[in-house]
């Protein structure tokens, strides 16, 4: 009998968060008394279905060892890379000796601490039998403009088929490894895993989530994230 595929999580956390304008990387900024990364890890570590989490950290990271989950038995450390895609591929390599090719890998932004448990479960439930995999997202609601080089509107896009791409993004280990390797061999620094899979001619499935699954990129995102976490009952 073939073993049921397991589920693993990868958190690329080697970024320095230049847009935050802070000396502290954004994943280590304080959010309601804890770091952003600790809030992100909390949800995954409490999920019984997940076998382990790989956190990809920068070589000069001086913060990780003092976080609450640094020595957790389900957390594996991997070296970060110059770009997100390098970090994720390094984490995939760290998983290779622990996971099977047909296991699922969920890649999630370390700076998205407000992922809802029901969105995570919806993604897993929808994709476990999918041939390709997919990602969380939400349909675009605003009018979308394409700008020219001068910063003026070139055209208005039809938003009917446009989505905001969120994370987690969920793919089989072997597919994710092949997609990232081929992208990097072509010097294509893909900004998400779905883009790498798309390069292979495949069509990842979009699973609608909630708009509060925000990525912290600017200082004003921190109080908003705290508000969302309180609404979800994850902090008092």
Write the layout of secondary structure elements.
Blueprint: E1 7-13, E2 30-31, E3 34-35, H1 36-45, E4 50-57, E5 75-79, H2 84-96, E6 104-107, H3 117-127, E7 133-139, E8 144-147, E9 153-157, E10 163-172, H4 173-185, H5 193-198, E11 205-208, H6 221-231
Parallel strand pairs: 1-4, 1-6, 4-5, 7-11
Antiparallel strand pairs: 2-3, 6-10, 7-10, 8-9
Helix pairs in contact: 2-4
Low-confidence stretches: none
Cross-sheet strand order for the largest sheet = 5-4-1-6-10-7-11
CA distance, first residue to last residue:
46 Å
User: Mind summarizing the main beta sheet?
Assistant: 7 strands, mixed
Overall mean pLDDT: 95
Q: Please identify which CATH superfamily we are dealing with.
A: Spore Coat Polysaccharide Biosynthesis Protein SpsA, Chain A
Class by alpha and beta content: alpha/beta
Radius of gyration: 18 Å
Strand content: 15-25%
What is the third-level CATH name, the topology?
Spore Coat Polysaccharide Biosynthesis Protein SpsA, Chain A
Helical segment count: 6
Number of domains: 1
User: What is the annotated CATH architecture?
Assistant: Alpha-Beta Complex
- Pattern of helices and strands: EEEHEEHEHEEEEHHEH
In total, the number of strands is: 11
Helix content: 25-40%
């Amino acid at each position: 009998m073939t073993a049921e595929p397991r589920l693993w999580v990868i958190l690329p956390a080697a970024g320095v968060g230049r847009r935050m304008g802070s000396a502290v990387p954004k994943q280590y900024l304080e959010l309601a008394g804890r770091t952003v990364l600790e809030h992100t890890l909390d949800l995954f570590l409490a999920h019984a279905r997940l076998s382990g989490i790989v956190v990809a950290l920068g070589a000069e990271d001086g913060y990780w060892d003092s976080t609450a989950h640094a020595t957790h038995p389900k957390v594996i450390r991997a070296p970060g890379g110059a770009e997100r895609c390098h970090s994720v591929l390094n984490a995939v390599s760290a998983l290779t000796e622990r996971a099977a090719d047909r296991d699922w890998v969920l890649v999630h932004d370390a700076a998205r601490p407000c992922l809802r448990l029901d969105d995570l479960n919806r993604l897993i439930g929808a994709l476990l039998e999918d041939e390709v995999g997919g990602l969380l997202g939400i349909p675009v609601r605003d009018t979308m403009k394409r700008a020219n080089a001068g910063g003026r509107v070139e055209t208005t896009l039809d938003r009917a088929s446009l989505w905001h791409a969120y994370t987690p993004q969920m793919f089989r280990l072997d597919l994710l490894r092949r997609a990232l390797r081929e992208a990097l061999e072509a010097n294509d620094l893909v900004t998400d895993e779905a883009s790498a899979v798309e390069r292979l001619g495949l069509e990842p499935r979009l699973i609608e989530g909630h708009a509060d699954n925000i990525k912290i990129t600017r200082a004003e995102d921190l109080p908003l994230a705290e508000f969302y976490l309180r609404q979800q009952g994850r902090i008092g």
